[in-house]
Amino acid sequence: MQPVKIGILGLGTVGGGTVEVLIKNSTEIAARTGRDIVIHSVANLDDKCLKKLKLSTVKFSKDVFDVINDSQIDIIVELIGGTDLAKKCVIGALEAGKHIVTANKALIAIHGNEIFSLAQKKGLTVSFEAAVAGGIPIIKAMREGLSANKILSIAGIINGTGNFILSKMAEENVKFADALKQAQDLGYAESDPTFDVEGIDAAHKLCIMSSIAFGIKLQFDKVYTEGISAIKPDDVKHAKQLGYVIKHLGIAKQDKNGVQMRVHPTLIPDNKLLSNVDGVMNAVLIQSDALGESLYYGAGAGAHPTASAVVADIIDVARVLTSDPKNRVPHLAFQPNKLQNTTILAIEQITSSYYINLQVIDEAGVLAQISKILSDKNISIEAVIQHDTKNPQPQVPLIILTRQVKERFMDEALTKIAKLSTVHSYNRIRCEQLGD
Amino acid sequence: MQPVKIGILGLGTVGGGTVEVLIKNSTEIAARTGRDIVIHSVANLDDKCLKKLKLSTVKFSKDVFDVINDSQIDIIVELIGGTDLAKKCVIGALEAGKHIVTANKALIAIHGNEIFSLAQKKGLTVSFEAAVAGGIPIIKAMREGLSANKILSIAGIINGTGNFILSKMAEENVKFADALKQAQDLGYAESDPTFDVEGIDAAHKLCIMSSIAFGIKLQFDKVYTEGISAIKPDDVKHAKQLGYVIKHLGIAKQDKNGVQMRVHPTLIPDNKLLSNVDGVMNAVLIQSDALGESLYYGAGAGAHPTASAVVADIIDVARVLTSDPKNRVPHLAFQPNKLQNTTILAIEQITSSYYINLQVIDEAGVLAQISKILSDKNISIEAVIQHDTKNPQPQVPLIILTRQVKERFMDEALTKIAKLSTVHSYNRIRCEQLGD
Model-level pTM? Predict the structure, then answer.
């Protein structure tokens, strides 16, 4: 068969990794695909990396549109990142009749509806396996592997930087700031770590997975997002005493009231597989009606793991180049005309159990005051930790784990609790049992 | 689009589950696939289940060939099991121009080469996701998700019955026979459990995964197979003391010497995710060059989990009905003319570390004798457990964990050790670090 010709936009970490994997494994890739995948042209801001990447003989331009408009190219591989130029490139390439492979989670989460709509109209495919959980084939698993199932819920560790930080805090009993510094020193976190530690990156990925799971349009603005910077070593320690581990999870669920999409620190039972996913690794736990619980684990970032997904997408697109567009896997798993206008629940409407770390004055009756407020809101207490303090201290921690309650009632109770003269401050973290 | 018409052969556990999932989730399935999947006809030994499965209006026959030769059917779903009639059905259906979906691991492992060759000649697809690890989309992950990778090794818990037994032995400190009895009482094990506990079922699955991983023909007769019936509660206990868990693993690796395929009890470090996969659950750990370590976890058996994979295959086949056969995913991941004649290593040629549980006479100098024999064969000792016995006993356990050594040398050493007058008996189990 004819080789498939690709044009790559962006030769940064993922672009470089993609070139390396395509060259290193070209024999296996051709033996699997039944045809060669040829890097026909590349665009990058500078040409310094071309020699290192063994691309000296490949057509090069600093202008992405030279590649996009090259009539010989079958597939444009967008690895620029960001949402401005990347969007122009993808729209331009679709207009020029090119299929797209991208690793760009922000682009898909924010502009995916528009992009998929155009692709659909043009009979083209936009593949984005690398946008979620790096090299883990989670998009494929959800769209194709679980296609017989109603998907009920997703819980994923989908940001390696955040997971590295929380793992370090748990293993070494260090503060958030110190764990972040380690992540930065090792190159796992950017100098401005906001996207990772505040959950924005995870929210992009959760938004994409939710659409594929529940057959809804991409609605990034409706993902509730809470970061991990307020987690304290004490929270990690108390969680452990209660039999839990704190992870930064992306959680999506569908029930009769609607769809929940939320990224926040979460206590999960320490006997679940997900609680043993440490360091920069990612994992996604899916509950679905036919299969039950399934979990997908692997590297969620890095040049070669991400390239693994990018190249798998290139091979997939190469396979459907000659196919009837109607028979391809739909971008968001469901046929575009079958996407539902399901209600997306506000965070106040969700139900969860809660870990509450209260700083209280060390005197008799405090727990009784707090219990009364919780009880008035019908909030049951699952566990309490009160430490005997040997030396009298102005404040002591009081840890409460509640049973399931609607978040609105929890908020109302906490507002009252915060007003107690015996309560100095509090920190609350949601808690999930993760099925079973 | 036109509905896809399927014919189902066999309405046992998996056949019944497949019908139930197709009916229960028909709306979602049609919304994903873009067309209805219609059960056009079924064959079964008796018609008692038709009413229960809401199939009263579906064409029924006791003769599978009535379904196979029905000209209206696009896809034959073979869920009979076994290798005799099932093979006749699949060959007959291919001859009649029908695509195949099957959950039959024995059929694929033993007759897959012949079946795929015929399918290839006819331009037809044989899908078999449900044959390996039940509902976990592991075939899809390996054939498509990891298509950019050289796969280096596989280690899988791929028999739920065996894993249930070993989990029970570890949790409740019971004997193999008692754990097997529990598995039988719960319906997890057959009254004749040979296929499961002796590793034959796992060997079928490993054979299939190995071909897909390494691009070799199916060679079931070359899979080394060892069961779990000789594992004793003491082994489980000693393994734990050493920081390991005993699992019945299917292991396949490719290195410069060739491919290894082996199913046997294995000590694995207790901090690896795989060691936390308990009960009837399955999981497959894959090492590949671009992605690194990835793991896939879920239900490896049961009516609905297996149906999840069967129906996903039906949807996949529906999608490629109109596609160019050359552009489909090859049955064994690699194009048929690219399969390699890689050497399959005999078990004596593998390298492993070993746990040895020796029953020795409780007297001075025994460890020295044994150490000398190991050292003469260049076998290093990683750890030793000798228990102080309060009451003199005729025999005491001596536990040795070795470093990596070629199995042939280990066998030679053990033959010598067994001849020592101080050694009563021994049991040895291979030990794997599982990467990192």
Answer: 0.97
Contact at CB, B135 and A292, closer than 8 angstroms: yes
Residue A242 Cα distances to A274, A383, A397, angstroms: 17, 8, 14
A299 vs B292: CB contact, 8 Å cut-off?
yes
Q: Per the CB < 8 Å rule, is A297 touching B297?
A: yes
Let me know if A205 is a catalytic residue.
yes
Instruction: Residue A34: list chain B partners with CB under 8 A.
Output: 326-327, 330, 335
Architecture of B4-136+303-335 per CATH?
Answer: 3-Layer(aba) Sandwich (3.40)
CATH 3.40.630.40: does it fit domain A348-431?
no
Q: Confidence band (pLDDT; 50, 70, 90) for A389?
A: low
Structure tokens at B333: 């991941």
Mean pLDDT of chain B, nearest integer: 96
Of residues A141, A290, A321, nearest to B305 (C-beta):
A290
Q: State the complex-level ipTM.
A: 0.97
Kindly list the distances between the CA atom of residue A19 and the CA atoms of A113, A124, B403, in Å, as whole numbers in the listed order: 29, 23, 38
Cα distance between residue A292 and residue B381, in whole Å: 43
Residue A364 pLDDT grade (very low, low, confident, very high; cuts 50, 70, 90):
confident
Task: Report the distance separating Cα B91 and Cα A39, nearest Å.
Answer: 41
Q: Count Cβ neighbours within 10 Å for each residue of A343-380 and write b for 16 or more, e otherwise.
A: ebbebeebbbbbbbbbebbbeeebbebbeebbeebebe
Class of domain B350-431: alpha beta
Task: Say how far apart CA A87 and CA A111 lie, in whole Å.
Answer: 8
Question: A144-297, what's its fold?
Answer: Dihydrodipicolinate Reductase; domain 2 (3.30.360)
